[in-house]
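Marked as duplicate of an earlier ticket. Keeping the data here for the record.
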Amino acid sequence: MATLRLEELSAGTALAANKLTLRRGQEQFVVPPSYAIADAYLDPTTSWPRVVLKDDQVVGFIRGNFDPDAAEDEFKSCVWRVHVAADQQGQGVGTFAVLALADEARQRGFSRLTALWEPGDDGPELFFTNIGFKVEGETQYGEKFGVLTL
């Protein structure tokens, strides 16, 4: 049985993360991995970029953000990006990544983890709600706002 593990983003793993493909229809709900990877370096004090490896192959990417001073509560401890290779979806990779991010948030003293997503048939709402996120509302742009209590 393959083992999942997280690793900090590096030059080598960033290239592999950038090549992750999504299932047809999902690309409209996410920013390309290259943007998310670049975002991770904008503020290294609050950004938490990691790749998910299955054995030694990059199969996912997650970026969290931890900023206790953020003006808006939903951005203090949040899932910023999650990408899982199309052929690895449904195998626990995304859940593993988000729960690892939740553990990191808990260790940093946060009591909740948030996520924003666009609603839609191929969107990530079911993924987040299956993990335990509760929809608390919508942004002014129509995105759903979910909270996972830690």
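See parent ticket for discussion. The beta strands are 4-8, 47-54, 57-66, 77-84, 112-117, 134-138, 144-149.
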